[in-house]
Design goal:
The chain has 200 residues and is α+β, with helices and mostly antiparallel strands. The protein folds into three domains: 60 residues, OB fold (Dihydrolipoamide Acetyltransferase, E2P) (Beta Barrel); 71 residues, DNA polymerase, domain 1 (Orthogonal Bundle), CATH 1.10.150.20; 46 residues, Orthogonal Bundle (Helicase, Ruva Protein, domain 3), CATH 1.10.8. The chain is built from nine helices and five strands; from the N terminus they run E-E-E-H-E-E-H-H-H-H-H-H-H-H. Strands 1-2-3-5-4 form a five-stranded mixed β-barrel.
């Protein structure tokens, strides 16, 4: 199991980043909460990781903090929640906000995240109750777009990232329309779009 990686950020195209660790490039999928903390390409990065082994692929997930990884692992234990949905949850809220949502049994808040229906939201709340206590005790691009080369605008990168998180293209276009004539970075645009989506 690969639990931690430290290296140089070679490229990033949400939700995927490429980390150069002593000449070996690791492709890592990460939630937007982690992307917000990343430096520009070439900067140093340290990530907690979780490896998911499937019959057709080995996928490495990266997190800026141990609490994010713990929540990701706890979510994977909930029936009906896979890695993609867990990343969506972490991208849509901070660990603290998610814990408060579960404690308040606010299923409506969870249903605002793509792919989570009412039944799934209620199941997450029920099955995460015990995990919440443990957390408190501990203190606790377009998928097909290349992540290397080519010049893409922050808006197109944000579009790809939001689609990869499960939002429909038409909805993403609507969310990003407000930021067309701004100098916002990709991360700022995604963060603002996610906040806007949570309000609607």
């Amino acid at each position: 199991m690969i639990g931690f990686l430290r290296g140089q950020l070679a490229a990033k195209q949400p939700p995927t980043l490429l980390l150069d660790v002593n000449g070996v490039g690791y492709e890592i999928e990460a939630p937007m909460s982690t992307f917000y903390t990343l430096p520009a390409a070439g900067g140093p990065v340290s990530l907690f990781t979780h490896l998911v082994v499937r019959e057709d692929a080995h996928i490495l997930y990266g997190f800026a903090s141990e609490s994010e990884r713990r929540l990701f692992r706890a979510l994977l234990k909930v029936s009906g929640v896979g890695p993609k949905m867990a990343l969506g949850i972490l991208s849509g809220s901070s660990v603290e906000d998610f814990l408060r949502t579960v404690e308040a049994e606010d299923a409506a808040m969870l249903t605002r995240i793509p792919g989570i229906g009412r039944k799934t939201a209620e199941r997450i709340i029920i099955e995460m109750r015990d995990s919440i206590k443990k957390f408190n005790a501990a203190g606790g691009g377009s998928p097909n777009a290349p992540i290397i080369g080519g010049r893409t605008s922050p808006q197109s990168e944000a579009f790809g990232a939001l689609v990869a998180l499960g939002y429909k293209p038409a909805e993403v276009t609507r969310l990003l329309k407000s930021f067309e004539d701004t100098d916002m970075t990709t991360e700022e645009m995604i963060r603002s779009a996610l906040k806007l989506a949570a309000k609607t």
